[in-house]
């Protein structure tokens, strides 16, 4: 995979992710619509590949206005990943040297890898994740829109313990998926399925598209590493 193709895929997926995020604000107050409706229009241009360097810059300007409007990344991790993607896209378009652009896109890939590993590390040092109580509390007490049928899973502590450790171990070993193309593809499929499940079960739909938008960078990075050897 070439750098240019990976950047193109990232732009397309980022455009879809931002449109999905922005649709939540279509019927919001006017001071929000004035930010998000132009964002949707710019994302259409980004998906179509029209003047993507300037579109990325305009989207970054809007992102900064949103940070001011909401006093920070109001949706936490998904907004931070959005800003990271936009920053990297702007840099790869305007940096003068190919080697610098590769460093920026490689940085995006490494941040993606670390997002999974650090998430796993935070969980494994938390005793409530190690004994399954964290997931028990999610299904029993949380305000996530979990169906009543799924809430009954808190009665299955052994299942929740297995699920907890499955998530922890996958996130911790995710960096090892880089050892080969099949393992990386398998790892990304599992990770995407995990995000999709979270979207359906808990309504965490923002994480699915925005994390997928960063996947081309890690696929490119693996190609780049193997080409170097």
- Write down the domain tally: 1
Structural class: mainly alpha
Principal-axis shape: globular
By DSSP (H or I, 4+ residues per run), the number of helices equals: 12
Task: Provide mean pLDDT, rounded.
Answer: 85
The low-pLDDT segments are: none
Q: What integer value in Å does the Rg equal? A: 19 Å
Oligomer: single chain
What is the ordering of alpha helices and beta strands? HHHHHHHHHHHH
The largest pleated sheet is described as: none
What is the helical fraction, as a range of percent?
over 70%
Bin the strand percentage: under 5%
Q: What is the CA–CA distance across the termini?
A: 16 Å
Number of strands: 0
